[in-house]
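wait is this the right file?? whatever heres the structure
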């Protein structure tokens, strides 16, 4: 979906959110947090070829096929969800460690290294 389409969708739903880079120093990656009257959405949008796509799909597929890793990640998210966060990004930053650990195991298992 193009950025202009997303902007139109936000206006139609009465939400506002500034776009910001989701992947610092990488072109083609954006993120927006939509705050609406009845829903909050954290949306990542990538252009074709963005490096982050491969990472996210590897992470998703690994969690789908490894229940132990999925439980570990879910437990960390539940632990972090109990805390108050001033910004959504603070929560995302707090789970970076576990995400990197899981991704390293997924890469090693797929022969991609750490």
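ok assuming it is, sequence goes like this
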């Amino acid at each position: 979906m193009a950025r202009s389409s997303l902007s139109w969708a936000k206006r139609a739903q009465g939400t506002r959110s500034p776009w910001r880079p989701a992947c610092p120093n990488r072109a083609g990656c954006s993120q927006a947090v939509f705050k609406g009257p009845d829903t909050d959405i954290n949306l990542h949008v990538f252009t074709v070829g963005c490096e982050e796509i491969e990472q996210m799909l590897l992470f998703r597929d690994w969690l789908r096929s490894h229940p132990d890793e999925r439980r570990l990640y879910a437990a960390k998210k539940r632990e972090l969800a109990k805390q108050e966060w001033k910004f959504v990004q603070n929560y995302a930053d707090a789970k970076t460690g576990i995400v990197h650990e899981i991704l390293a195991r997924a890469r090693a298992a797929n022969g991609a290294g750490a």
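The longest strand covers residues 29-35. so i think its the right one actually
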